[in-house]
Each structure stands twice: as structure tokens, then as C-alpha cells.
Amino acid sequence: METWTIKTPDDTRWAVIALSGEFDLYAVRRLREPITTLIEDNGPWIALDLSQVWFIDTTAVGMLVRLVHHLRAGDGDLALVAPRGQVRRILRWTNLTCLFPVFDSLSDMLGDPATR
């Protein structure tokens, strides 16, 4: 993964992490600590903006599954925003689009009353 940014939009419980580049073993290692800190500071509601991610591997898929279970155990959730191309295909092929709320855009997620 090349970069990520973290933001918390106003009037929502969600912390949004926007990723870019490859979401792979290297990225998973680099993201563990920031995600743990984010959960401790802001609570168990995380949205991953994947609109700029063009590749995902099995390590990242495994991290997503573990993370959603961890967040839900803390009465939170994990939403995926705008997965494209190979990332969306992998999520569909592994049937993980049924596990996560998946939104086409951040504005769709924030505008959905169920996610506020």
C-alpha cells in the first residue's frame, strides 16, 4: 500500500481510512498499529475507503475478516467503500460482499440513515 489517510467526518460515528495502492501483506503489517489506535481513540466503527486500491491479496482479505469480527464483538462494524476492479472481484468471488456493508461511495455510506 502506498498511503493511507484517516479522517472522521462530522456527525457520524465512523472513522474513515482511505487506502491507496496495493492492500497486501506489507500494508497489513503497516496498518495494524494505526487501526488499533484508531479503535482505542474513536471506537469500533471503521470504514475503509478502497476507491484507490487496485490490488488486494489473501493476507488483506484475512485481515478484513478478523477486523470485522473484532469490531462487531465491540458493538461496532466495518464498512467497505468503493471497492473497484480486482478488489471488488475478489470480494465477490470469496462471497465477502455478504459479510460487510459495501457502499459505492463515501457519500452513499454517510447518507444512509442505517449507518449514522
From TrEMBL:
Record Pfam families: STAS
CDD domains in alphabetical order: STAS_anti-anti-sigma_factors
InterPro entries (alphabetical): Anti-sigma_ant, STAS_dom, STAS_dom_sf
Ranges of residues in domain STAS: 16-113
A GO term, aspect molecular function: anti-sigma factor antagonist activity
The family this protein is said to belong to: Belongs to the anti-sigma-factor antagonist family.
Alphabetical list of PANTHER family matching this protein: ANTI-SIGMA FACTOR ANTAGONIST TM_1081-RELATED, ANTI-SIGMA FACTOR ANTAGONIST TM_1081-RELATED-RELATED
Protein name listed in UniProt: Anti-sigma factor antagonist
